[in-house]
Design a protein that fits this description.
Elements (H helix, E strand, L loop, with lengths): L6 E4 L10 H11 L2 H16 L4 H16 L4 H16 L7 H12 L3 E9 H10 L5 E10 L2 E6 L4 H9 L5 E6 L5 H4 L2 E7 L3 H10 L5 E4 L2
Parallel strand pairs: 1-2, 1-5, 2-3, 5-6, 6-7
Antiparallel strand pairs: 3-4
Helix pairs in contact: 2-3, 4-6
Amino acid sequence: MSSSPRRIVMDFDGVFTTTDSTAAWLVPRLRARPLLLARAAPWLAGFALTSRRPPARTRVTRRLMDIAFSGQPADELIAELSEFGSALANDPSMTRPAAVEEARSLIAQGHEVTIVSAGMTPLIEAWARALDLPVRVCASVVSGHRGRLRWDDHCFGERKVARLAALGWREWDLVYSDSAHDLPMMRGADAVVLVDGDDALLGRLGRALPGTPVRAARW
């Protein structure tokens, strides 16, 4: 075990996965339900247009997911999300084995690893269980309200920092991410690992994080 355990923060989508886990669940669901897809279409467009505006992205996401969750009881949807997370874990085209091994190595050295993600908590927790990966999950909260599933908390942008603080983490040693959306979280770290980012993004992070080492990893 390491003599000095570190706190490690790892994004989920794009770090552990090759795709956005919420979209991977959502898009087939909407395609199979044309009426839901028609209702969701304007919000899907809004989602694409708000990537650089976190408060707007959160409002759009909540409305979009409210539509996606409609017509099915909350307990059935949570079970469906859990099943999808398990399937995602066992699909080598969707889950990056090198990222899983990186997390296992960090844990074996005695470090604390927390996955912090805008993805949905039931899906990611089921993914971690399927891989027997002992990580803490801090992700978007969905829960039942009068039998319906609701998107309660969008763990995105600055909200990731607030959620970590709620867990008692006000500083951390290392962040793994694939996106500049995680700059608020990166600013609290001693070092950053950019996963599968291009040179332009690597340069942008270097300029935004003066004095913080940023290295690239390709999984």
